[in-house]
Design goal:
Blueprint (H helix, E strand, L loop, with lengths): L3 E8 L7 H19 L3 E3 L17 H18 L5 E10 L2 E10 L2 E7 L25 E3 L10 E3 L4 E5 L3 E7 L9 H7 L4 E6 L7 H15 L3 E6 L15 E5 L2 E5 L8 E8 H10 L2 H8 L7 E5 L22 H26 L3 E4 L4 H16 L7 E5 L7 H14 L2 E4 L3 H11 L8 H22 L2 E4 L3 H6 L12 E2 L6 H13 L7 H8 L20 H5 L2 H14 L3 H11 L6 H17 L1 H4 L28 H8 L2
Parallel strand pairs: 1-2, 2-3, 8-15, 9-10, 10-11, 16-17, 16-19, 17-18, 19-20
Antiparallel strand pairs: 1-14, 3-4, 4-5, 6-7, 8-9, 11-12, 12-13
Length: 648
């Protein structure tokens, strides 16, 4: 329904040379997966029927006869089972022996893909037994040559891609093929393959696992595809080598499943692949298609259609509810500090070009705190005194003691120049000028304050020959949660591509890394402050009464929606489905649906604010700059998006 497909990599125990035993184990896994995992495509290791380490036994007719006999058993066994099975076996064709992958479905071999590159160095000696696919003189083989009762011609070669029911296209390469400068999988991907399967038998040596993992993830990223790698396990011969049974499933460069043990066997790993992510990237990034056009002489291929319908609802899918935030603390700290350095670099360049002091409005909230920290670090990097940052706190009708005190304490602790300019009298005068009742706390009441603050910042920057550093973040821009020509405007927006869910972790990472000595306690208190524009009066106890998330919805949800809408162009229905999976312990379906509708409404109607954004540094894959990543008419209709959600 949502373009998911389930894949499983299986590493069974084997007995080297015992095709009957090995096939028994293969059939046991086929039964298990068919009943429990219900995978759509299952891959076994290289030469899984015989074992990879048979050496000169490959020349024995008895072994080959056993291979043919057991291929027949597998065909018979899969005739009444759903799924596609990729099995490794030696196959004879035109007088030569080839290391092959058999593509089996519904009791039939749909294609045979031979190994192209045969390692013949160090511990490898494959050319002694096998011929390369490049030496193959035919492009199909009769089923009768494989002792199959039903007579049909089986496509054979490396120019084959497999189309599964018009939903998924996959290709195959074998072990060493991946290690070459131009792997066959690259050609298969440019021919249209969205998943690459690698039947492998990779021995283990020190540090090879990390190198192998890097190869798989990089090949997946470079070819904008999923890559399923399945390697022979520890029950291969250990005469001279140890085989680790390392299996990896990667999607668009990210490893989504991998076995845990260094040396492993008798296991399976299963993952649901989101094909829509792959299709979305190939649609967006034109260099992929340009590559296929450039190498068009290599793009001719045969497509084998496998008429198999399948359903996959993504039960194995791992859905991160904070897609902008790394889940690992170590990675999160590293990522946040890298982003912080990027913000500093962007502001440093702008400050070098514009000259003057950096003027910033400091409210005691998250966004202005992060922007202030970036500004301070920037002047340090420029070798200028801290007085080149001017922080201005501008208390108004909604300012609470907590945020006011934190803004003052933070500026003092950082050692910058700071000022306090109340906006109350100026706003009252403006209410009088336009005939607005101060007791009417409508949008005019709120926006008057926001615009007064921006006027102060801009005019003070003019006075001292400086420029205003913007504080607004990506989430606010997406929702239009900013006042037009007020906090919406600045000379440079350092937080423009930082989502709200990441801002908090950015500040925490800066504090934990002790970038600003003596500020940790203040920053911790700021992190505990509710998100609010503080444009409405506090409650009776002097606490923040106006909480942003009560009005627009939880930022965790909105950032989730934003990521999946912009990064992959997912439909509202799919985003709703993924959100229900990710937030099942946090929100019910009705709440998720309510805020998703609000997200689309606000995202469309507030585009006019994004169309005239000031410059700002891009730090991630999702950005709303009208000059770079996002171009959209300001008067587009959101009707079809809401209509789809109305039908849920």
């Amino acid at each position: 329904m949502f373009d998911f497909i389930r894949t499983t990599a299986v590493v069974p125990d084997i007995m080297v040379g015992n095709a009957d035993f090995n096939t028994d184990r293969i059939l046991e896994y086929i039964d298990d997966i068919s009943e429990n995992d219900r995978s759509n495509i299952v891959v076994f290791p290289e030469l899984s029927i015989t074992g990879f380490t048979c050496a000169d036994l490959f020349f024995q007719s008895e072994l080959y006869n056993a291979v043919l006999r057991n291929i027949g058993r597998i065909l018979k066994h899969t005739a009444d089972r759903e799924g596609i099975y990729l099995i490794g076996a030696p196959i004879k064709a035109n007088g030569q022996l080839y290391n092959c992958a058999l593509v089996i479905e519904n009791g039939k071999i749909h294609g045979i893909v031979p190994k192209t590159f045969l390692p013949n160095y160090n511990e490898f000696y494959e050319k002694r037994w096998f011929s390369s696919a490049s030496e193959l003189m035919l492009n199909e083989i009769s089923s009768r040559e494989l002792c199959i009762d039903d007579e049909y011609m089986i496509p054979m070669g490396t120019d084959i891609i497999f189309n599964v029911g018009g939903k998924c296209v996959f290709g195959i390469e074998i072990c060493e093929d991946l290690w070459t400068p131009l792997p066959p999988s690259t050609i298969s991907a440019m021919r249209g393959a969205e998943i690459i399967f690698n039947l492998s038998a990779s021995n283990e040596t020190i540090a090879k696992r990390s190198y192998r993992r890097s190869l798989v993830s990089q090949q997946s990223a470079r070819n904008m595809c999923a890559y399923v790698y399945c390697s022979a396990g520890e029950t291969e011969s250990t005469t001279d080598l140890i085989f680790s049974g390392n299996s990896i499933i990667a999607e668009n460069g990210s490893v989504i499943a991998e076995n845990e043990k260094l040396i492993d066997t008798n296991y399976k790993i299963t993952a649901d692949i989101d094909l829509e992510k792959i299709k979305a990237d190939r649609l967006k990034y034109k260099s992929f298609k340009d590559s296929a056009a450039f190498y068009k002489g290599m793009m001719t291929c045969r497509t084998v259609n496998i008429d198999m319908d399948y359903d996959c609802f993504g039960e194995y899918l791992k859905v991160n509810k904070l897609p902008f935030v790394p889940s690992s603390k170590t990675e999160r700290l590293s990522r946040c500090m890298d982003i912080f350095r990027m913000q500093v670099a962007g502001l440093k360049k702008r400050a070098s070009a514009a000259g003057g002091k950096l003027v910033i409005g400091v409210s005691g909230g998250l966004d202005s705190t992060l922007a202030l920290l970036v500004a301070v670090e920037t002047v340090k990097a420029m070798g200028k005194p801290l007085e080149n940052v001017v922080g201005i706190t501008m208390p108004g009708f909604g300012t609470t003691g907590k945020t006011y005190n934190n803004s003052i304490k933070l500026m003092q602790a950082l050692g910058i120049e700071y000022k306090e300019i109340s906006i109350a009298d100026a706003c009252r005068q403006h209410f009088k000028d336009i005939g607005h009742d101060e007791n009417d706390h409508s949008i005019t009441y709120e926006n008057t304050q926001a615009r007064e603050r921006t006027k102060i910042l801009m005019n003070y920057a003019n006075k001292i020959g400086g420029f205003v550093v913007g504080t607004g973040d990506l989430s606010e821009l997406a929702l239009g949660w900013c006042t037009y020509n007020a906090d919406h405007m600045s000379m440079y927006g350092v937080n423009a591509s930082i989502p709200k869910t990441l801002v908090r972790w950015m500040i925490e990472s800066v504090a934990e890394n002790e970038v600003f000595a003596g500020c940790r306690d203040i920053l911790s208190d700021i992190l505990d402050t509710p998100i609010s524009p503080e444009l409405l009066p506090p409650d009776a106890d002097g606490n923040i009464a106006q909480k942003t998330e009560d009005t627009v919805g939880p930022y965790a949800l909105h950032d989730f929606y934003l990521y999946h809408m912009l990064r992959y162009g997912f439909s509202p229905r799919k985003i709703y489905y993924l959100a229900c999976r990710a937030f099942e312990n946090d929100f019910d379906g009705a709440t998720i649906l309510k805020w998703l509708k609000n997200f689309y409404r606000r995202f469309f109607t507030q585009q006019f604010k994004r169309s005239c954004l000031p410059d700002g540094v891009k730090v991630g894959s999702v950005c709303l700059s009208p000059r770079g990543d996002w171009r959209m008419p300001s008067d587009a209709s959101y009707g079809i998006w809401i209509r789809e959600l109305d039908n849920i």
